[in-house]
Design brief:
The chain contains six helices and two strands; from the N terminus they run H-H-E-E-H-H-H-H. Strands 1-2 form a two-stranded antiparallel ribbon.
Amino acid sequence: MSIQFGPEWREFENRLLRTPQVTEASLRRAMTASLLLIEGDARRNVAQDTRRLAGSINHRIDGTYPTLTGSVGPNVRYGMVVEFGRRAGGRMPPVDALIGWVRRHWGPGTQRQLRGRAFVLARSIQRRGTPPQPFMRPAYTRNQVRITQAFARVGAQVTTYLAGQRIA
């Protein structure tokens, strides 16, 4: 008994060899779309004063298939404090970091007055803490269904590719 494979077998074998590249490209598209959903939602819903925190929310993708990793979040240090709050009795926040806020919200003054007010505010934050104002977790939660759907489509796209059809 003899078995011969036709030209379609070679085409399938070529597609099979290219599957990791096709899979990575599909995963990158799904991951980018997902991270942009979270990024946009978080930027719209973050507590804002100067919009510096919102402007610092970015995404990035590291690695290659099969170990792609996507991350999204702010790159300013106080982003975590806004998201999770600050516990009462912890360390006092840096006084210098509060001077701009004091100037915008309590009005002008001499540098010494502004620093004194910022110190009072920092001490109050140390004693009372600050409540969380989540913006990243809710952004993920609100978009979770769309993210899951995007990654489910990756499986369908790879299967379609292996079957020899064009990926939409």
